[in-house]
Amino acid sequence: MYAFQLVNALYKNSLKVDEIEIYWLIPIMMVVVPIVYLIRIKLFDKLVLGIDLKKIEAELEEYERKEKEVSESDKLK
After folding, report:
1. Overall pTM > 0.70
2. Cα separation of 74 and 77, whole Å?
3. What are the residue boundaries of the structural domains of the chain, listed by start?
4. Residue 69 CB-half CA count within 13 A
5. Do residues 48 and 61 touch, judged by C-beta distance below 8 A?
6. Which residues, in sequence order, are CB contacts of 1 under 8 Å at separation 6+?
7. What's the DSSP call for residue 47?
8. In the prediction, which pLDDT does 34 show?
9. d(Cα 59, Cα 61) in Å, to the nearest integer?
């Protein structure tokens, strides 16, 4: 956001800085902020909390496989 404002301030000789630029900045920030937040969440979970999403997915698949085996064995009985 600051870089956008700085570029506009340097390249425009207008006295009305930040009057129209905010309308350009809002859509850009609507894209950038969620992307940065998702990256932060993934890094925080992996590095700080030690949560590995691939391991969690593997465990869930294993539970589903065992559940299918149990339900199939119940059907045969």
Report:
1. no
2. 5
3. 2-76
4. 6
5. no
6. 25, 29
7. I
8. 94
9. 5
pLDDT for 44-57, tens place per residue? Answer: 877 777 777 778 88
Q: How many CB atoms lie within 10 A of CB 45?
A: 13
3-state SS, residue 77: coil
Cβ distance 4 to 28 under 8 Å? yes
**Cα dihedral angle (16, 22, 23, 26), rounded to 10 degrees?**
170
Which residue, among 1, 46, 45, has the nearest Cα to 26 in the 3D structure? 1
| Whether 4 contacts 31, CB under 8 Å | no
Residue 18 has pLDDT above 70, yes or no: no
**Secondary structure letter of residue 17 according to DSSP:** T
